[in-house]
Design goal:
The chain is of the alpha+beta class and 68 residues long. The chain is built from 2 helices and 4 strands, in the order ββββαα. It starts with a strand and ends with a helix. Bound molecules: zinc ion.
Amino acid sequence: MFYVKETINEAVEVKIDIADNVFCQCPKCGTEVEIELSDFIGDKEFDLYGSSVCCEKCSRKFFREVSK
Ligand SMILES: [Zn+2]
């Protein structure tokens, strides 16, 4: 498992499993979107810093516009 490690203070260090706790913000409306990281691993276009994922509502709108 991969996890994110964050030291809060000298006494507290948290490890967060990133497989289940990955979120990003929809670039169109700012809604928080939960990401299934394993869906993106292996995707050549995916880049942890440069990629963002639209929320369901915006991606539906996007696909509707594309398929017009
Ligand atoms: Zn959105």
